[in-house]
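> example.struct
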């Protein structure tokens, strides 16, 4: 049985459908399209460009100054973020990164997770541990 990727114009695979080509082509809605999905890839590891399935690549994110001292002065810098990547901050705020890096400081100890997503890249998380000064 064939697998079909139903994708949006930006190349994001919305869902994967198993069945015949005729049935798969009925599944897209609006501006979505369908293309045959190779074995070993799925919606979280691939995207579509020019009607062709491509594997997503990892972002080369770099984190400086960890663990973070929770004093609202110390700062962690996450760099190597490709332009256009969406970052979800620990409080749920979502921004688009345009300059390749973000900075983070906090005054409460704890674990803080940042999520990075963009169509041509694998989704990634960076976890920052903030500790009390000793």
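> example.seq
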């Amino acid at each position: 049985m064939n697998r079909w990727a139903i994708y949006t114009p930006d190349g994001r695979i919305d869902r994967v459908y198993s069945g015949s080509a005729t049935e798969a082509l009925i599944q897209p809605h609006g501006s979505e399209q369908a293309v045959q999905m190779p074995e070993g890839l799925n919606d979280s590891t691939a995207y579509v460009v020019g009607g062709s399935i491509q594997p997503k690549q990892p972002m080369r994110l770099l984190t400086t100054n960890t663990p973070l001292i929770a004093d609202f002065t110390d700062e962690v810098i996450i760099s190597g973020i490709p332009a256009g990547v969406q970052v979800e901050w620990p409080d749920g705020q979502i921004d688009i990164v345009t300059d390749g890096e973000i900075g983070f400081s906090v005054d409460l100890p704890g674990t803080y997770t940042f999520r990075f997503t963009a169509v041509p890249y694998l989704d990634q998380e960076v976890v920052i541990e903030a500790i009390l000064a000793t």
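> remarks
The mean pLDDT is 89.
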